[in-house]
Amino acid sequence: MYSNNGATSREVVNHWINKEFNCTLQAKHLILIGSPGTGKTSFAKSLPSHYNYFNGKWRLNLWKNFARYSAFDNIGWDQFEEKGYPKKKDISTQDEPFNATDDIEIVLGIDCTQPAIIFSKPGPPEGTLGRQPITYEDRCEAALWRQRAIIYRMALIDQENEKDSNNHINYTIHESIEFLDVLIENVEGKLNTTVFRKPAAEPYILPYTSNHPRLTHSNTIYTALLRGIRLCSDVHTFDQERLNIEIALFFNGYPRNFIRRHFKEFFKNHNSSPIYQNLDEQRYKELHLQLVNESLTDDQRQLPSNQQSVTEQHKNSHTKEKPKNEKK
């Protein structure tokens, strides 16, 4: 598909008008995906030329061969043929006239030598445009529209940029993003997560030579492993994180035997020794989901428990005051 690369909607539209608008053969469609109120329809009707405009329903008697462009609004990307529209491929080739019909059963030859503007709402109406291609047919379809269309996803940022040119906001689409201490990546359509460390930030681990109780040092190992399993989405990514933990502990004075013993105890206590011994992928997935769910459950229980403690305190206060009232 078309990558925005930080371009604004105005830049994308100007590029399409300058490069594709006047083409009468295999011009690229302009596909704008955005919520209501982002100015898609107003733009489509503002170009100084005759146009075909269809909103939801296909009407063959409204088609004009002499129009400079066509605009298709409020139609799901995968619903063109279902709603009686001509095939998208026929419209996009601009090659030869083809026959089209509608629900009134009118058959008419269409000479489509004009580019098209197609609008879609974000989410389900995007259809295959918003999904990662899985099957061979999906990949062929995606490759076709990479060649025949410029696809742009609009946002409220576009509206804010229009209000004040001095406050220009750019946004980009990347294959990875860092959020807090998590690195999120899109690897061949699959979502992967791992621990993110800022290059300029030095992680701090309590030195083994400190005067803290040994329980504190064992908790340091437990917490690091727990964090690694919750954040790493696959066993191989976690294995790399495990090595990072071992190295950090080793350089902070933790004895090798102490590290290995607590590593083994951690996985043994979670019935997951095959992960530490053989990198068992299936068992890792189970443990990963288990620990993630436990963290969510703890957060959900935190508020009710606080509310319960407040309620108990309130009851206790009334219980203590009651005998005083009886004495009076």
TrEMBL record:
<feature type="region of interest" description="Disordered">
    <location>
        <begin position="298"/>
        <end position="328"/>
    </location>
</feature>
<feature type="compositionally biased region" description="Basic and acidic residues">
    <location>
        <begin position="312"/>
        <end position="328"/>
    </location>
</feature>
<feature type="domain" description="Helix-turn-helix">
    <location>
        <begin position="204"/>
        <end position="264"/>
    </location>
</feature>
<protein>
    <recommendedName>
        <fullName>Helix-turn-helix domain-containing protein</fullName>
    </recommendedName>
</protein>
<feature type="compositionally biased region" description="Polar residues">
    <location>
        <begin position="302"/>
        <end position="311"/>
    </location>
</feature>
<dbReference type="InterPro" id="IPR027417">
    <property type="entry name" value="P-loop_NTPase"/>
</dbReference>
<dbReference type="Pfam" id="PF26215">
    <property type="entry name" value="HTH_animal"/>
</dbReference>
<dbReference type="InterPro" id="IPR058912">
    <property type="entry name" value="HTH_animal"/>
</dbReference>
